[in-house]
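Hi everyone, sorry if this is the wrong subforum. Our group has a chain we'd like a structural model of before ordering constructs, and none of us has done structure prediction before. Sequence below.
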Amino acid sequence: YTPPVLSVILRSRKKSSDPGSYLLQEGSSLDVVESYAKLRMNLLYTMIEKESNVVVISSAVPGEGKSTISANLAISTSWSGKKVLLIDGDMRRAAQREIFGYDKHVKGLSEVLLGSHNWKEVIQRNVRGSLDLLAAGTFPPNPTDLLGSERMKAILAEMSKEYEMIIIDTPPVNIVSDSLTLSKSAAGCLFIVRQNFSDHKYIRKALISMEMTDMDVLGFVFYGEKISDGNFHQRRKYKSYYSKYDNRKNLNTQSNAVKQEPQGSAEKQKNTEKQKPQDTDKQKTVR
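Answer:
Right subforum, don't worry. Here is the predicted structure as tokens:
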């Protein structure tokens, strides 16, 4: 069985020192928004027969974009109306802290697994729409053991009753085995491959590790600046195709017009009401 490619996502070419600038926004280009929507729908389809609604996201090595994709997939899924929880499962680096900009002293997953806090107490609510976030917390000495513990399994089972999808951003497979310990708690792993960066031998090594620990690979996500989905992204004018279907500006204009219309109509009604008594007086005079 070869896992499918669930989506091809264009990586922004802009260079920014702020990881949060790569988050999906209402004004993000339609091709990027749609690529995450496609990922969301394909992922949900692959999980139809799964008992768990927990998705682990990982890659072979650092720098392949898994944390950005984790955050944006969570945002895109929340936009669809689902209640989503994003867990920063990297208790070594806490990449989501850089993306969402929360304080490094915020309590999170490590405190929950160590038993000092209840997960409902440390959840950050509605960080983007209906998206909730569980921070990594204080870096513990044994993150692998904590993620693979029975307590982690029990907590995820509790969370699954409140959330429709739980996304866990985890460290790269070839660096540490943290993500592999979640094989019994998750539906599977979404594996990120970055263009002109990921190495075939490292990808193969990671896939073998996941196979040996019974971690299902739900699918791949290809991520890159000049990546092509078939030949589509190689066309010079592909952006113009998206622009023809991007009606968000028109919808905003219409909504603004609708908001302004009642004010004008109300003023007209007032003027009409003021004139009515005058007209009646004139009629009486003529009579």
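For your construct planning: The chain has ten helices and eight strands. The longest helix spans residues 248-286.
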